[in-house]
């Protein structure tokens, strides 16, 4: 019998449990105070810039990693 890899079990668990872990309380008519404060002070742009920078770095890392792996696969053939 084949053994199921640990990452596959973890992925299935996260996909099944993800919605329950991310569940939020029911929406109320109250505004989100932190978001309003960031928006009022102009700091929301800093938050957006940090998020875009992090995502850009992750994407750039993945692209370079893919290129290195492709190069190693070509050398191995």
From TrEMBL:
<keyword id="KW-0472">Membrane</keyword>
<feature type="signal peptide">
    <location>
        <begin position="1"/>
        <end position="22"/>
    </location>
</feature>
<keyword id="KW-1133">Transmembrane helix</keyword>
<feature type="transmembrane region" description="Helical">
    <location>
        <begin position="46"/>
        <end position="65"/>
    </location>
</feature>
<protein>
    <recommendedName>
        <fullName>CcmD family protein</fullName>
    </recommendedName>
</protein>
<keyword id="KW-0812">Transmembrane</keyword>
<keyword id="KW-0732">Signal</keyword>
<dbReference type="Pfam" id="PF20077">
    <property type="entry name" value="CcmD_alt"/>
</dbReference>
